[in-house]
Design brief:
The complex is a heterodimer of chains A (438) and B (158). Chain A has helices at 2-13, 258-261; strands spanning 25-41, 47-49, 51-63, 68-79, 90-102, 109-119, 122-134, 139-148, 166-175, 179-188, 203-214, 217-226, 231-241, 247-257, 278-291, 294-305, 308-321, 326-337, 351-361, 365-380, 383-396, 401-411, 415-431. Chain A is mainly beta. Chain A has a domain at 1-97 and 406-438. Chain A has a 22-stranded antiparallel beta barrel. Chain B is mainly alpha-helical. Chain B has 8 helices and no strands. The chains are: A mainly beta (438), B mainly alpha (158). At the A-B interface, strand 1, strand 3, strand 4, strand 5 and strand 6 of A face helix 1, helix 2, helix 3, helix 4 and helix 6 of B.
Chain lengths: 438, 158
């Protein structure tokens, strides 16, 4: 329990930070979470888990001449009882930490440190430098370079399969808020040689588009090409039509050539996948805001793979009352999928999904109930269903400091029976007089 | 070759003039504000059109495109890929990285068990379901677990 006290003290010590703030804007987000779990896994001994995790985020804006900011986020965990996950009692992650200089013009900025890049077809986690700016006449430019952030080593390897350098960027052109065209690419250094997996170098180029000929119509998406396989990797497009503000009709098309798109996924030896393998999904949805407090939606998606076809369809309802302090939702979906998608030798992978939740959030207390159930067409590991229900109750000591607890119980094929408890101390403080961010 | 050498300084000068002209033009392109001027309520499905007239400044897209309808939330990846600076006026990076990160300590839906209204991946017993969903749409797994956040995958997929 000593660690919990330490974490609580750590969180409490952060209360002092805003007091030292001057012209700069600071914000601190701290969550200390103690989980209490009893696990009963089929064929294994029962376990009691008591991991305590400290999540910490810190942002300092308007530093120096007002253009500089510092951002940090990370967590660490300590197991007070049985090991909750891997062989380590203590674990942690430095999620991001960077200095950002924002220019007053052209949305130009420079980031240095550890950050995420989302630009066109590029989605990377990088230790390095990122420069972005808009240019005259509707053009824009972004470039990044550095080292990819490495992740867990693959089994039996001393590497995660990533190279040691990465760079890339995007150029774009926008015309009067009517359309945008982008071209992006990335180049990762040579992937390490692996003993047990077929590895591939991570290199992609692609283009993206956003087109809105009228404010009620939007077409957007991207295509990527893998120069290593010399084949297209992905096409992903979405159409939104809003005949009236409350009604959104959407259509989507996604296609992936797996040997190209998953080429650098060492864990599944993406580079060794069958070049003929093609996955496609097409679908549509309708969502309608019947009143400001009630939204109804329905969706359908058809999946096509070499191993078979599947369909998913369903409906969701969302509501809110009492000035947004009561929020809730109900949903039903059905997946129709044949035996090639099934677990083991089951003749079907089809299942029904049902979910319902309601929550009440006030300035003093907050409470929520969430229930989710899956009903399988064919039993999985001799279980006909999987379900979990969670109840949560919390209290705000101050607008920034809250203590809450969750308890959940469920049964499922994987863990016959799962009982979980959680105690959460959160401290989210923004020393900023002009709105803020979530 | 001689002609190339002679024209090199001229080209360099022209390039410099072009860069200076571009820099001068960029003063006419004001940046987005660092943060939204008013605090937005937590858990609200923000409708930008409620306050913002649907009119673009410069090359900005229509504000209506960013209203957080259910469809927007489901497809936010398309918007984030080209307009994450607009996202960042209201959201901290950590808001995205609650789900999109290199190493997740616990499922986001567990960390935010008190916020069932937030769209979070893998609620409930996804351990069983991933054996079906992974065959159905492996690309959707790859987006988050292909290049990062693979610790849970590596534990079993050997």
């Amino acid at each position: 329990m000593r660690m919990i006290y330490c974490s609580v003290i750590c969180s409490a010590s952060l209360l002092a930070i805003p007091l030292t703030a001057s012209a700069a804007d600071y914000s601190v987000d701290s969550s200390t979470i103690l989980r209490i779990e009893n696990r009963d896994i089929v064929g294994a001994k029962k376990e009691t888990l008591l991991p305590v995790t400290q999540f910490l985020g810190f942002d300092a804006n308007n530093l120096a001449n007002g253009n500089l900011s510092l951002h940090f986020s990370g967590w660490f965990r300590y197991d007070l009882s049985d090991k909750s996950y891997n062989d380590d009692d203590l674990n942690g992650s430095f999620t991001y930490g960077y200095l950002q200089y924002k220019f007053k013009q052209a949305n130009a900025d420079i980031r240095a440190g550890r950050f995420f890049v989302h630009e066109g077809i590029v989605n990377e986690h990088v230790d390095g430098l990122n420069v972005r700016t808009e240019l005259p006449m509707g053009f824009g430019f972004s470039a990044f370079g550095g080292a990819p952030v490495h992740t867990t080593h693959l089994y039996g390897e001393s590497s995660d399969g990533k190279g040691d350098t990465i760079y890339g960027g995007r150029v774009n052109y926008r015309y009067k808020g009517m359309f945008e065209l982008g071209a992006s690419g990335l180049y990762e250094g040579k992937a390490p040689k692996l003993k047990n997996y077929t590895n591939g170098d991570h290199r992609q180029v692609g283009g993206d588009v956003w087109f809105s000929p009228h404010k009620s119509v939007e077409v957007m998406g991207h295509s990527s090409y893998n120069p290593e396989t010399k084949r297209a990797a992905e096409h992903s497009y979405l159409v939104n039509i809003k005949p009236v503000q409350q009604l959104v009709l959407s259509g989507e098309f996604n296609e992936h050539r797996e040997s190209s798109y998953l080429y650098a996924w060492s864990m599944f030896s993406g580079a060794a996948l069958n070049p003929a393998e093609l996955s496609r999904s097409t679908g549509g949805s309708v969502s309608y805001e019947i009143t400001k407090n009630f939204e109804l939606s329905a969706d359908y998606k058809h999946y096509t793979r070499e191993i078979g076809n599947a369909d998913r369809y369903g409906t969701n309802a969302r509501f809110k009352f009492m000035d947004n302090s009561v929020r809730g939702g109900l949903g039903y979906h059905y997946l129709r999928a044949g035996k090639n998608f099934a677990i083991g030798t089951n003749p079907s992978a089809s299942y029904h999904e049902l979910r319902g939740y309601v929550m009440h959030d006030t300035k003093t207390y907050f409470a929520a109930i969430d229930a989710l159930a899956y009903f399988f067409k064919e039993k999985i590991y001799d279980e006909k269903s999987a379900w979990e229900t969670t109840a949560s109750l919390g209290y705000h000591f101050t607008p920034a400091l809250a203590l809450s607890g969750d308890i959940s119980y469920g049964r499922n094929p994987q863990f016959t029976e799962e009982t979980k408890g959680l105690i959460r101390l959160t401290y989210n403080f923004t020393f900023d007089g002009k709105g803020g961010k979530k | 070759m001689k002609m190339f050498k002679t024209s090199l300084p001229v080209m360099a000068l022209a390039g410099l003039i072009l860069i200076l002209a571009a820099c001068a033009q960029m003063k006419a392109l004001p940046s987005l504000p660092d943060s939204h001027p008013e605090a937005l309520a937590i858990g609200q499905q923000v409708n930008c059109s409620e306050c913002h007239e649907d009119q673009q400044k410069g090359t900005m897209k229509s504000f209506a495109a960013f209203s957080h309808s259910g469809a927007f939330v489901k497809n936010h990846r398309f918007y984030a890929a080209s307009d994450d600076r607009l996202c960042s006026t209201c959201h901290k990076a950590s808001f995205c990285n609650d789900c999109h990160t290199n190493k997740v300590e616990m499922k986001p839906s567990t960390r935010y068990g008190h916020r069932p209204d937030r769209e979070m991946p893998h609620r409930g017993n996804f351990m069983t379901l991933h054996k079906i969903e992974g065959k159905l749409d492996p690309a959707s797994c790859y987006r988050c677990h292909g290049r990062a956040n693979n610790e849970r995958c590596v534990a079993c997929h050997r």
